[in-house]
Design goal:
Layout lengths: L15 H32 L7 H22 L5 H22 L8 H23 L1
Helix pairs in contact: 1-2, 1-3, 2-3, 2-4, 3-4
């Protein structure tokens, strides 16, 4: 009997531990892309006449794009539940950024804005996971 699956799966299904590792790797990929986008934004601001008013928007777009790419990374390496694994990665991504902002003592306001960030992180992660599986 032939079992369908990818190299990262055993018989087409991931174990709990490898699923956790996959989400962790996707999180690292997303953080790496965020660092890359942050560096590109800094270079863009430094060498172009672009106003610093646009920095928050560029960073927010880069963050969402990073979550999407990290979730696509996860989706490419799994057979099922890409939306859930990608969504969890997006949720943990926002959680890591929240912990880093607390560590660096950046003031944040808990409330609807924070809930919106968690929702967008999960949504873009889920969309990236779906996109990764289907591509």
């Amino acid at each position: 009997m032939h079992t369908r699956g990818r190299a990262s799966t055993s018989g087409g299904a991931l174990s709990l531990f490898s699923s956790f590792n996959l989400v962790l790797w996707g999180l690292l990929v997303a953080l790496g892309f965020s660092f890359l986008f942050l560096a590109l934004n800094a270079i863009l601001i430094l060498f172009t006449p672009l106003s610093e008013v646009f920095v928050p928007y560029l960073l927010f777009a880069g963050t969402l794009f990073s979550v999407l790419l990290g979730a696509v990374f996860i989706g490419k390496r799994t057979e099922e539940k890409g939306w859930l694994r990608g969504g969890l990665m997006g949720f943990f991504y926002v959680l890591v950024l929240l912990c880093l902002s607390y560590f660096w003592q950046i003031d944040f306001q808990p409330g609807w804005g924070l809930l919106t960030k968690f929702f967008l992180g999960f949504s873009f992660g889920a969309a990236g996971g779906i996109w990764g599986i289907n591509s």
